[in-house]
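A common beginner's mistake is to predict each chain separately and then try to dock the pieces by hand. The better habit, illustrated here, is to supply every component at once so that their relative placement is modeled jointly.
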Amino acid sequence: MKRFSTFNAVSLTAGFAFLYLPILLLILYSFNAGRSVAVWGGWSTKWYASVFSNQQLLDAAWITLKVAFLSASVATILGTMAALALARHGRFAGRTLFSGMVYAPLVMPEVITGLSLLLLFVSINVDRGFWTIVLAHITFTMCFVAVVVQSRLVSFDRSIEEAALDLGCTPFMTFFRITLPLILPAVISSWMLAFTLSLDDLVISSFTTGPGATTLPMKIYSDVRLGVKPEINAVCSMMVAVVTVTVIIASIMTKRQEVERERAERLAQTKS
Amino acid sequence: MAAKSIGPIRRKFAPWDDPSAKPLIRIENVSKNFGSFTAVNNVSLDIFEREFFALLGPSGCGKTTLMRMLAGFETPSSGSISIAGLDLAGIPPHKRPVNMMFQSYALFPHMTVEKNIAFGLEMEKLPKGEITARVEEMLKLVKLEGFALRKPHQLSGGQRQRVALARAIAKRPKVLLLDEPLGALDKKLREETQFELLDLQVALGMTFVIVTHDQDEAMTMADRIAVMDKGQFVQISRPAELYEQPVSKYVADFIGDINLIEGRVEKNDLGKIILGSDTTGGMIEASGESAVKNGDTAWFALRPEKVSISLSPPENPSVNTATGTVWDIGYVGDVSVYHVRLDGGGTMRASIANTRRIVERPISWEDKVFLTWAPDSGIVLTK
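With all components supplied together, the output reads:
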């Protein structure tokens, strides 16, 4: 292993400090015994206890989890279907346009996505609330799923599917018996990605929500405007924990899948 | 595997010469275009039951496309394909009475060897007991007993090749398609497996259609070979005919090694053709029938192993003789190939079997040599 030069060590430290110092401070102050956000008053876990007795916060957290679970699940199905269409069916009319349109929401400003969805819901006269948030989250997370799954399908050996067809398996069953099991790690990690994206979304949720449907990020944001309470630090720390764990699991799965694929490819090359 | 030689079966087998024989696979005027590129250009072919048929050609000649049309992965742009009288148009791959062994083997990586082989049988909805019995039979056939519970990545290349074969024949298809089945094996294993496949094909009584770019493979195994070039068949014959009686310079050059000597036709009658050649500086006398006329340009195609090389001049040096200087010697062990620069320009090759254990050969570099051949050793080609 090469040793770090001084310059590299400094840039690494500065970079990580820039990225993580705010989050570390947040987590540290969630254990602050004092009421003030800025003054350290010793260690305590009482704010965590108080979160669990704050019914409003708990309700918001429950709604957020439900939204994230539902939208991630639907987005995974739709995104996988879009990825299959893009990766499998070669050149069909409008393919370039379609793939461009699948990817566009990745770079679309959230405000625009949120606003356009709001306009849509208003114009078709839907009661805004829980389900409109779910729909909105499906919309913006499914393109992430499509990207992740498509990149797996690109390296997928098509002759494996052809072999299944050749042995008498219908195209529909081939998907469930051959294709899906093989791309499952990518599908699961894309679900996790969609889940975390939905979990911490504020802008799109704010545009598409209605009475009675307040997600955790919305609740935190509105509370903070009235002054930061230590409770909020505790909630945020827990969110950081959930997101971190999910992302780590997802990336481990992707990594393992890559390693396995590399090994399979190596074996295929050496043959005999 | 068969304890007796399969010779008697193979020698008698020639249904394509029998006008009353019904072909199993009938390919009629089939073309396949990809955009403006014509991969297969209006080909027709009959393949008979129990035949071992090879499609041979360089990459890009259309052989794989033709096979994929048989399997149903490509649809002909025009023409028709039928198997046992059943027109395959519109029948998807999973309903065709053929199975295919893929070049990459295409084993299901998430299933064990056993599950891979059972897959096609499960799709057929055979009873459980029968599936188990059939899988066992297949494992025994390809000598992989004891490997049933391994995953594909735990097998060697040769073993994977055998799993792919077992999986493809487990359903006992009428026709087995093999796409470069031995391409990924090393030379020794490939040669062994060629004969194993051949014995297996006779034992199972199945029709095999193999796609390969390896002429040795095609020559060793096939009853008939179709040589393809630019989407068309150039010649369809038995291996020996292909080698000894190629119809064109392309076939002669593609199958084995050949000397092509250009000449003018001076006489053609009574099964004897005389060519005048500037390359040899004399006459070439060839026996055989050909439609060539006096004055035509033709090529005398002569295999290197049918050329004799000598340091002393022959009795009649004006016929079937070329003189030159040894330029290169390729020693391969069993044969030595002499590259001779002819006095009349050009190069000829003569390969001499090394029948005796001597390190120093009497003919060496820069020796002046005489190359001679018999009238019936080569063939006159016009294209």
